[in-house]
């Protein structure tokens, strides 16, 4: 494409902001409009389930600076896209014309509540985190539905406050992504910290109106002062109805973050990568959102980017154990090699798969991100490394 005259970014997310910053860094000095739905503007979301649930003081460090980017901010959600007229319409009635468009609207939390059932709590936004933290201030017991990364982070924050915590899921903690080897260790760690993990045969329902518990598959009910649903997310594509851009799995993009519509790009949690060689899918991690935003910016300008549209790095902290992952997930089977002691939470583990990229996990051990990435790309066993 020729150099765009006007660029519109829908979604004041880390993917959207990364694209805006990359556009300016690559010399684009034209009109740049950023459309977002939250009054706070762009802010870091990973700390919401970690620091913000524990302390209101953590909110002070969330904001992403953007004053240097000369953006025209529209703080009203996008409600319609006209790809023929090349315009985006917002809920407030503003119409933003574009020559190049980036969709970076992210995802919304998947909900379990029945129609008109009140009181379900999820964690996706700063407002969500504030609501949960305020409820934790008054609670003695918490049920978390979902033992994935988000669910275990919420459980960790509740346990750190001294609350009685039960996690409910169809699988043990983090089994879907980290595999049985690390999941078993995390289950034992949770039990030692007094966090109960209740494994059920199938999905649970919410009890009460407002919600005060969960209905288990056998029909019995668990109750608590606070119930938080952490059951995954859904790409935010409702506003794209009628455009043929998106489906239930999100917006399909290629290696350049291009979509099926000319001059429309997508990045972040809303995007589903489908490379020519196969594989791909959604990669709802912060690092991939940053990478895709930068790749999309280069593509808008008709330039190449040295980056891949995925960055397989992720970190979390579960009940005091830091877990950093460099490389593709999910993990299966036992690691190829282990340096350290997994039982005490001080180890580096490596999964080598024939014909695939290596994954390295720092389990409780402090390892700089750059070092972890280097280990994931190294061909020697990690027992020869000096982390």
Automatic annotation (TrEMBL):
InterPro entries: FAD-oxidoreductase/Apoptosis, FAD/NAD-bd_sf, FAD/NAD-binding_dom. Residues 7-293 form the FAD/NAD(P)-binding domain. Its cofactor is FAD. Keywords: FAD, Flavoprotein, Oxidoreductase. The keyword ATP-binding does not apply. The keyword Oxidoreductase applies. This is Ferredoxin reductase. It comes from Nocardioides aromaticivorans. The lineage of its organism: Bacteria, Bacillati, Actinomycetota, Actinomycetes, Propionibacteriales.
